[in-house]
């Protein structure tokens, strides 16, 4: 079963979550192309919250082999990977 999400709607949801939850109390905000790890926005604890949010939003677990840095560098990449045409399918 595959959950289909519109990429732009998923981008907006990810931005909202990161800016309001993960960056709570920070003066920072991000956009869809912000470098999340390189700029220190996401750390080892925040990635766990982000993964839980994505899995809840897409309605399935992300397979371990999909949890690699290149899939989580920016909001745009995450949205395209998990809500776009390259989304993973549950077996």
Description:
By secondary structure, the protein is an all-alpha fold. The chain has a single domain, classed as ACP-like (Non-ribosomal Peptide Synthetase Peptidyl Carrier Protein, Chain A), CATH 1.10.1200.10. 44% of the residues lie in helices and 0% in strands. It has three helices and no strands. The chain has helices at 7-22, 44-58, 75-83. The longest helix has 16 residues, at 7-22. It is globular, with a radius of gyration of 12 Å.
Secondary-structure map:
Elements: H1 7-22, H2 44-58, H3 75-83
Helix pairs in contact: 1-2, 1-3
**What CATH architecture label applies?**
Orthogonal Bundle
> Which shape, going by the Cα principal axes?
globular
Number of helices: 3
Strand content: under 5%
Query: What is the arithmetic mean of pLDDT?
Result: 87
Count of all domains? 1
Classify the fold: give the CATH topology. Non-ribosomal Peptide Synthetase Peptidyl Carrier Protein, Chain A
Low-confidence stretches: none
- Report the CATH superfamily: ACP-like
Number of strands: 0
Query: Structural class of the secondary elements?
Result: mainly alpha
How much helix is in the residues?
Answer: 40-55%
How many strands, which pairing sense, and closed or not: the largest β-sheet? none
CATH class: Mainly Alpha
The span between the termini is 7 Å
Question: What's the helix-strand series?
Answer: HHH
Radius of gyration: 12 Å
């Amino acid at each position: 079963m595959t959950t289909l999400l519109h990429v732009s709607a998923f981008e907006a949801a990810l931005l909202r979550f990161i800016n309001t939850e993960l960056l709570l109390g920070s003066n920072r905000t991000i956009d869809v192309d912000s470098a999340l790890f390189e700029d220190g926005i996401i750390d080892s604890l925040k990635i766990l919250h982000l993964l839980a949010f994505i899995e809840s939003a897409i309605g399935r677990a992300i397979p371990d082999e999909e949890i690699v840095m290149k899939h989580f560098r920016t909001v745009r990449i995450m949205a395209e990977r998990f809500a776009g045409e390259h989304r993973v399918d549950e077996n």
